[in-house]
């Protein structure tokens, strides 16, 4: 719940810094004003696809919304202190930020736990490239309309602006995926 409120405050801060109303942000993200309001007030936990769209429209790295403490030069997150989780069985994932990085970091490391009960949902896009490494379990990665089966030890690197989604390949076991979102830098 704490992270939900933190994310909401950050969405509001970034929205106001971009001089957008809730309605304008909602329209840009194909959401309702009510949903944006619930996110900002900590009453709703956004799916990563939703948060990614919001981040893209606000020109803010996704990682900035997921972190709770900012450190400028060094970020250490002890295993026993990890409390940064967002998501639930309704969206099919939980996310755990691995580094409390400054707002404009180019790389965002996250552990995604893919819940076995997750249903196939519409693939989504985001502005960051994505690298995934399967820590345990197995997933079905749907990328640009094609199915790719990945299991422990497998990895993939892909452009986030192509429709994609991954779900657990085993309906009885969750999968853990080390994910890096990488900001594209124009040459």
UniProtKB/TrEMBL annotation:
<dbReference type="GO" id="GO:0005829">
    <property type="term" value="C:cytosol"/>
</dbReference>
<dbReference type="GO" id="GO:0003677">
    <property type="term" value="F:DNA binding"/>
</dbReference>
<dbReference type="InterPro" id="IPR010982">
    <property type="entry name" value="Lambda_DNA-bd_dom_sf"/>
</dbReference>
<dbReference type="InterPro" id="IPR014710">
    <property type="entry name" value="RmlC-like_jellyroll"/>
</dbReference>
<dbReference type="InterPro" id="IPR050807">
    <property type="entry name" value="TransReg_Diox_bact_type"/>
</dbReference>
<dbReference type="GO" id="GO:0003700">
    <property type="term" value="F:DNA-binding transcription factor activity"/>
</dbReference>
<dbReference type="Pfam" id="PF07883">
    <property type="entry name" value="Cupin_2"/>
</dbReference>
<dbReference type="InterPro" id="IPR013096">
    <property type="entry name" value="Cupin_2"/>
</dbReference>
<keyword id="KW-0238">DNA-binding</keyword>
<feature type="domain" description="HTH cro/C1-type">
    <location>
        <begin position="11"/>
        <end position="65"/>
    </location>
</feature>
<protein>
    <submittedName>
        <fullName>Transcriptional regulator, XRE family with cupin sensor</fullName>
    </submittedName>
</protein>
<dbReference type="InterPro" id="IPR001387">
    <property type="entry name" value="Cro/C1-type_HTH"/>
</dbReference>
<dbReference type="Pfam" id="PF01381">
    <property type="entry name" value="HTH_3"/>
</dbReference>
<dbReference type="InterPro" id="IPR011051">
    <property type="entry name" value="RmlC_Cupin_sf"/>
</dbReference>
């Amino acid at each position: 719940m704490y992270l939900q409120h933190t994310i909401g405050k950050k969405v509001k801060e970034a929205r106001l810094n971009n001089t957008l109303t809730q309605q304008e942000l909602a329209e840009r993200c194909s959401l309702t004003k009510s949903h944006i309001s619930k996110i900002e007030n900590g009453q709703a936990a956004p799916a990563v696809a939703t948060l990614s769209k919001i981040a893209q429209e606000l020109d803010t790295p996704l990682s900035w919304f997921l972190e709770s403490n900012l450190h400028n030069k060094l970020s250490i997150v002890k295993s026993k202190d990890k409390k940064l989780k967002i998501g639930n069985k309704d969206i099919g994932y939980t996310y755990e930020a691995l580094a409390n990085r400054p707002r404009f970091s180019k790389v965002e490391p996250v552990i995604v736990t893919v819940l076995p009960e997750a249903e196939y949902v519409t693939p989504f896009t985001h502005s960051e490239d994505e690298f995934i490494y399967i820590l345990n379990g197995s997933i079905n990665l749907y990328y640009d309309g094609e199915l790719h089966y990945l299991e422990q030890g497998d990895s993939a690197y892909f452009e986030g602006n192509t429709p994609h989604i991954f779900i657990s390949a085993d309906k009885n076991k969750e999968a853990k995926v080390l994910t890096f979102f990488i900001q594209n830098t124009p040459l």
